[in-house]
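Practice problem 4.
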């Protein structure tokens, strides 16, 4: 009998743990998910509530492609990679969580991608191609830059 009670307790605990995890929300403003989406012309950064309501295109930049959104720890900003119109290289940009205040974080470099915020929000790390051979990145590094709250500089 005690094995049955133990099995029921363990099973119930697992069900509650899984149910709790299923309700988890991303680190953006409560319930908001940021993602990239092709809108028929280019890739833009969108947000949507976790239930699917409130879809909003934050970037709306014809002929430019934005990718890989990353929420700041305070949920107030989004870092992302973008190729501006006519440019084949991507750079790291930051904007406010409502899509305003867009600015390039680091100038120069090839194919800067995959921005990730430090836990305190003071730095953004990203991958950066350091050598291009025959149109492909043949060598890359992890770089970092001050967040937009500090003076931006490449490292």
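Answer key:
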């Amino acid at each position: 009998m005690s094995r049955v009670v133990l099995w029921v307790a363990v099973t119930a605990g697992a069900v509650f743990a899984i149910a709790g995890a299923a309700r988890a929300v991303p680190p953006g403003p409560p319930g908001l998910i940021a993602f990239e989406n092709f809108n028929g012309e280019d890739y833009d950064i969108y947000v949507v509530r976790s239930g699917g309501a409130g879809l909003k295109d934050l970037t709306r930049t014809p002929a430019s492609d934005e990718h890989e959104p990353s929420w700041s720890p305070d949920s107030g900003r989004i870092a992302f990679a973008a190729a501006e119109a006519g440019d084949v290289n991507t750079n790291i940009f930051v904007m406010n969580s409502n899509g305003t205040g867009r600015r390039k974080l680091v100038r120069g470099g090839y194919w800067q991608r995959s921005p990730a915020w430090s836990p305190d929000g003071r730095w953004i790390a990203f991958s950066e191609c350091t050598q291009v051979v025959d149109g492909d990145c043949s060598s890359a590094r992890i770089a970092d830059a001050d967040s937009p709250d500090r003076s931006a500089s490449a490292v």
